[in-house]
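#onboarding

Welcome to the new folks! Below is a worked example of what a typical request in this channel looks like: someone posts a single protein sequence, and someone else replies with the predicted structure as tokens. Don't worry about understanding the tokens yet, we'll cover that in week two.

Example request:
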Amino acid sequence: LDYEPWTIDAVYAKISEHARRADDDVNLYGVNVGYVFDEYNAEAEGYWWAKQERCVGAAAVANTQPASINGHCDNSVNLFGVRGSMDPIEDWTIALEGAYQFGKYLGINAQQSERDRTAWALDAMIECRYWQEQFDWKPVLGVEYIFYSGEKDMGDIVASTTGDYEGWDPMFRGKFDTAIREFQNVYYRTAMGSCPANTNQHQLLVRGCVEPTDEIKCDVTYGNFWLAEDYSSSNGDKYVGSELDLNVNWDYTEDVSFGLLSAWFLPGNHFDDALDDIATDIVGTVKLSF
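Example response:
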């Protein structure tokens, strides 16, 4: 709904249906309300999202734990958040976002009961375009800090664990800031699988962008990452590592462009000596517009 300066979006999505039983669907609900101000290029929005997930894992079939008897286990996430951005002075933008999650958490098949969920996240950003019109290369600089609350025992491997679960749930995110770190331990757990990038983490990102010609654009991102809570199973060092991403895009014609992404992740002291090799990612792309 568009009631300028207000916009309202309502979303319902069926993420998964009848994976193992008739009542184990995963549903997503959400409402986003935005407002655009007349001054300072300012905008603000508030949102609520809910992920309804029942009968998690094999326990939903075998009924091997009290929480899943008769299919009544619950792994729900409710999220409330607010975000705003503005240009306090020309060529400068600041943005701030905060969100809080609550609901229920069911981690593993042996967990004896559901736990209350309580987690939060913060995102703060500053972008400077002061030199963009003064130099031919149009430089842009930015700094962003992101925090996700965390849990000391990732994966909740102890069946008798009680108390609130404080790990951040990424739900179905669409924003990614790095090429390597944010994909670690997402699809499978590595030997250091206890430190995914979507929970229990501080990250500080410094970005730069230049345009040597009208057809070529170069972006660079340097990030530092460290744990919010030290995992009880780790070596006691919270520093996860740093990453450097270089991305070059060449608009060959109006319809054809080429891209080259190179990224290096340098593991920090959190990783054991036998697991601290530098990770490298190189991706070439071709884009055709019809």
